[in-house]
Amino acid sequence: MHHEQHVSSSETIRDIVIGMSDGLTVPFALAAGLSGAVNASGIVVTAGMAEIVAGSIAMGLGGFLAGKTDADHYNAELKREYEEVERVPDQEKEEVKQVFADFGLSGTLQQQIADEMAKDKDKWVDFMMKYELGLEQPNPNRAKKSALTIGISYIVGGIIPLSPYIFIDNSVQALYYSCAITLIALFIFGYFKSKLTGQPPVMGAIKVVVIGAIAAAAAFILARAINK
Amino acid sequence: MHHEQHVSSSETIRDIVIGMSDGLTVPFALAAGLSGAVNASGIVVTAGMAEIVAGSIAMGLGGFLAGKTDADHYNAELKREYEEVERVPDQEKEEVKQVFADFGLSGTLQQQIADEMAKDKDKWVDFMMKYELGLEQPNPNRAKKSALTIGISYIVGGIIPLSPYIFIDNSVQALYYSCAITLIALFIFGYFKSKLTGQPPVMGAIKVVVIGAIAAAAAFILARAINK
């Protein structure tokens, strides 16, 4: 029970990281790029909001359907493994033995493992799913929750770089504030993200800031070049 | 050799799918949204190109650094497992036994497996990495190749919905063409993507088209509402 809770909370954090990482970066860079080409903040806000809604739907809904596809795939493979265990048990035993042959266990021991595992069909199939096919059972509620978490995190992340353009009419002036608050937000975000994933936090934070800065600078230069 | 080639080509295809999926959807929806708010295709093209460069850098560079982080994480864990196998071999043996206890093998057999596996330290550590920690050895060249593939696929995908705006000045008229070619492109893309991942292709294609259409419609409605 404790273990499952741990997994579920770390998956939620992973989803927040996925959504917020892109949400902070892409709308920030888009707004910066447009600031280099148009002077009115109104267009930047319109484009930015359109991007945020498009990005959050693409990521959230895309993630939801990918999760559903994973679950369908898992269930189809599970059904097939149960059938194979009934129909060609010797072949399935060979597959179990092969897994252990790869780790250098002797033929005698491989055979014993296969024979003993075959006594409990559920555990046998469970083993094949995990170690032959590398598939983990998907949590049926994950897909929906994951989609919402990613989508909302993208929106929250995207609002931060866009907010100066809402309050400041001159888009170039708004850009300065947007750079300042977004690079700070990216640093804080990168710091905690790295801490959570066990990476050196300051180095991780710098990496996240650099990606955002490069994306924004490239978008700014390209948009200005197109408009000339 | 054959197996590795198979893995590598399927990873490339996965990267193309990741990049192109977002590349077709988000710039399409952003352009559609802006068309509902401004009449000039010039701004749509500028915003769209800024989005494509920002998105491709965020996804490509983000993927590259994530791959590097995975490799660092793997190597750090690998070092720790080698140390633990030297320092606390009995504890590590207990961990091997626990893996097999979970699959219902008898205590005697668990002990035999642990003893035999302990004879070859490389394979023992390899086992712990894969089955206790669930970590696969990352390919050192993957991160760079993956970043490039995702980034380029995003650009290729993004150019498709944007191309009508380059040739047609009236953005509302360009939107019709953009919808037509992008929804066709999403259908073709979704069809092959589903075929490659073993899903029903027509159903998969429809899902991809629906996500794109919802994202574009939402962006269009929101951008129009903001501009009023």
UniProtKB/TrEMBL annotation, chains A, B:
Membrane-protein topology: Multi-pass membrane protein
TM spans (from-to): 147-168, 174-192, 204-226
Pfam families: VIT1
Main location: membrane
Protein name listed in UniProt: VIT1/CCC1 transporter family protein
Coiled-coil stretches: none
Subcellular localization(s) per the UniProt record: Endomembrane system
UniProt-listed InterPro entries: Ccc1_fam
Keywords, sorted A to Z: Membrane, Transmembrane, Transmembrane helix
